[in-house]
Amino acid sequence: MLPRAAKLRVMSEPSDSELLQRARQGDGILFGTLVRRHDRYLYRLARSVLADDHEAEDVVQLTFIKAYTQLAQFRGEASLRTWLGRITLNEAVRRRRMRRALVPLGAIDEANERDRSRIHLSSLVGPDPERAAAQAQIRKRLERAIDDLPPAFRAVLILRDVEEISGEEAATLLGIQPETVRTRLHRARRMLREALGEQLASALKDAFPFERSRCDRLVERTLNQVGLMPALAP
């Protein structure tokens, strides 16, 4: 159970819908809070489709601009994160189609195999510069291997093993069945292990970070686009 202080803190935090409503009333600080709450998740989602850092960041910015200008379309039937995720996914797929991609997100044939082994997801940590440099190199190799996965498998892997959302939420977001999510996830994990081995696969949760400085720049650009005063969180 959460300590009483933690419970009070959670209870005092505004919900996503409240943040969005207040932002529509001109509160740039709370809109920046909303962006920070979801930007890494949306960035990883967009990047799972586009395999490009800068394009993914552009998609995230456009997602929040659309959310701000299309608030009336959010009816609360799904969570705000799911609604934002759909905007992000639709825009990312649209951009990928503009590149004349040969493999659309939902066109991968289903597999019948079930690989029950899981990737160990412990993060690599260490204070010394040499280990930090080695970790950065491992992360880059891992990110390249993820980029090489078929798009449909890559999206499921990012959602389930990097962002750690539920299979049901991933299925809702991608518009596929939960069984399909499980099948694609098993195959994605297997391909990643075959490409990298268990040691590199263990760094999975560290892949595609969205650093504070990038978040700050994204917040400032987005607030400028929607006509609110930039206000960076302390």
Overview in brief:
This protein is mostly helical and 234 residues long. It has 11 helices and no strands. The longest helix is centred in the first third of the chain and has 23 residues, at 28-50.
Molecular structure report:
The chain is an all-alpha fold. Helix content is 66%, strand content 0%. It has helices at residues 4-12, 16-24, 28-50, 53-69, 80-98, 129-147, 151-162, 167-174, 178-196, 198-201, 212-226. Helix 4 (53-69) crosses helix 11 and helix 5 crosses helix 8 (167-174). The model is unreliable at 4-11 and 101-127 (pLDDT under 50).
Features:
Arc Repressor Mutant, subunit A, 11 helices, 234 residues, globular, 2 domains, mainly alpha
Q: What is the radius of gyration computed over CA atoms, rounded to a whole number of angstroms?
A: 19 Å
List how many beta strands DSSP finds. Answer: 0
List the total number of helices: 11
| The number of domains | 2
Structural class: mainly alpha
Using the 3D structure, state the CATH architecture of the largest domain. Answer: Orthogonal Bundle
CATH class of the largest domain: Mainly Alpha
Series of secondary-structure elements, N-terminal to C-terminal? HHHHHHHHHHH
* CATH homologous superfamily label of the largest domain: RNA polymerase sigma factor, region 2, helix turn helix motif
Compute the separation of the termini in Å. 29 Å
Any low-confidence stretches, pLDDT <50, length ≥5?
4-11, 101-127
Mean pLDDT: 77
- Beta strand %: under 5%
How would the global form be characterised?
globular
Helix content: 55-70%
From the 3D structure, determine the CATH topology of the largest domain: Rna Polymerase Sigma Factor, Chain: A
Describe the main β-sheet briefly.
none
